[in-house]
Amino acid sequence: xxxxxxxxxxxxxLGGTFVGTRSPADETTTxxxxxxxxxxxxxxxxxxxIIRSGALDKSDSRTLETAYFRRANAWRxxxxxxxxxxxxxxxxxxxxxxxxxxxxxxxxxxxxGELDRAIESYDRAxxxxxxxxxxxxxxxxxxxxxxxxxxxxxxxxxxxxxxxGDNRIYGNRGHAYFxxxxxxxxxxxxxxxxxxxxxxxxxxxxxxxxxxxxxHIDMEKWQREASLVDGxxxxxxxxxxxxGKETLDHLxxxxxxxxxxxxxxICEVVFYVGEWAVFQGALAEARTLLGQADEVCGPTxxxxxxxxxxxxxx
Length: 314
Hints:
Layout: H1 27-34, H2 40-53, H3 56-59, H4 61-77, H5 81-94, H6 99-111, H7 115-128, H8 133-145, H9 149-162, H10 167-180, H11 183-195, H12 201-213, H13 219-226, H14 236-242, H15 248-259, H16 263-279, H17 283-296, H18 302-313
């Protein structure tokens, strides 16, 4: 395991749909802006034309609100989140009850890493409409990034209550449960998520790690569930390590052949092998590997978060 030490190591926007009246601008401009047609640059140009016309300030605030909102969405699509926030602010000034503007402003703050302001915007969106699952889910992701895994799990649960068919949320709640050390609950969520994507080896690894940490190792069940994962694709070698079909030495040779020294793959190796070492009883090795994961995995990655949480427990 010491050889590992030598290796270098998306938001869904709610489309607030507003049907505004025709502006004094020409029909093509109106369609591009108010109906959100065309490229982001075209939407920005047409919405700017409507906003600058000045004729709507008093006569049609709803259309002006929509123009700001659509332009904000276009700025976000271009990655200009600061301008997007400015336009969302204007849309909210014109209509404080615009749920989508509050929600999407939260997404823009999140993209900028302004987590507290993102939460404030999601809070307001939820106050205005507590039935939007994605607002709870996105606020949960902010709590997760802030290290408040209890609130993250609660918000993910609220999102699941509102959208029980959205299996992505189960995987996210599973990560929050894992960080909290609630391994059985995490395993159930990861199993649900994997059942909807049985060829995805990563969800199976998270399920294995959670069940292993909970002391529920059922090798026959694991082998059945792993049968659908492509044996030629990464992370199959990691899955085989959990199944006892792969050795660490051979795994590292495969890694060098297939992946070189990509930092994301090194992160995955040290984390998942570290978790495997925990329920093998090799706690010293596990602490070393998870310490490496804490160092080399991206600071917002679930592997980094989970490694840090595990180090606090071991």
